[in-house]
Amino acid sequence: MIGSLRGRITSKTPPQLTVEVGGLGYELEAPLSTFFRLPPVGAEVQLLTHFLVREDAQVLYAFGTEDERRLFRSLIKVSGVGPKIALALLSGISVSGFIECVQRGDSAALTRVPGVGRKTAERLIVEMRDRLSAEPAEPGQPAAAGTSAESEAYGALVALGYRPAEATRLLKAVGPGTHSTEELIRRALQGAARE
Predict the structure, then answer these.
(1) Are residues 88 and 116 in contact, defined by beta-carbon separation less than 8 angstroms?
(2) 52/27 same-domain check
(3) ∠106-108-112 over CA atoms, to 5°?
(4) Is there a domain that residue 18 lies in?
(5) 141 within a domain of the structure (yes/no)
(6) Mapping DSSP to helix (H, G, I), strand (E, B) and coil, where does residue 45 land?
(7) Domain hosting residue 31, numbered range
């Protein structure tokens, strides 16, 4: 799998760009949010990527931030939402704006994005609430709008088999402070072991 590319931009025509890496030109598709931050043609760039293999094509998608790529990967798992709609969403609304729409249940804001109808917007809100941990499934669950380290630690604890309420309680017990994801997980597991 191709996780990232570093090379020289040889062409930019939204939503497509070409990045030359070691003599190979990689054709990429990117959301407008990434395009706005790209340097001019001829400049060096590093992009995160997602490689998608379909029956009729192999497409490499490019993202300027990990948050964009993570949201794209979550979006394409939603029934009825393919890469085209996921790119449109990332082009039409910021990651934090999307999370806010999900938190508020604002399907009207999502339908303003081209290609997103009322039913798709409602499905996105329902399915993405769980994936983003945007709305508490149980009281006190951390929101995805919080620090990414907290969100990642929460996801890791749930993946380890802790119930959402337990994961939340363990992370709250760690206390305030700036901790890396690894540190949060380590301290939460130490707290669980002491119980």
Answers:
(1) yes
(2) yes
(3) 125
(4) yes
(5) no
(6) strand
(7) 4-63
pLDDT of residue 139: 36
* Rounded Cα distance, 130 and 133, in Å: 5
Q: What is the pLDDT of residue 140?
A: 37
Name the DSSP class of 180: -
CA pair distance 170, 163, nearest whole angstrom: 11
Q: Looking at residue 100, which CATH number applies to its domain? A: 1.10.150.20
Confidence of residue 57 (pLDDT cuts 50, 70, 90): confident
Q: What is the DSSP string of 14-67?
A: TTEEEEEETTEEEEEE--HHHHTTPPPTTSEEEEEEEEEE-SS-EEEEEESSHH
Convert the pLDDT of each residue in 141-166 to its tens digit. 333 334 467 777 777 777 777 777 78
Task: Note whether 72 and 102 are within 8 A (CB).
Answer: no
Residue holding tokens 């919080």? 146
Q: At what angle do helices 164-174 and 181-194 cross, to 10 degrees?
A: 100
Domain boundary among the residues 63, 80, 102 is at 63
Length of the chain: 195
Q: Which of 63, 85, 107 is the last residue of a domain?
A: 63
Q: Could you give the CA distance from residue 30 to residue 86 in angstroms, rounded to a whole number?
A: 10
Pairing status of strand 24-29 against strand 58-63: parallel
Q: In the prediction, which pLDDT does 165 show?
A: 75
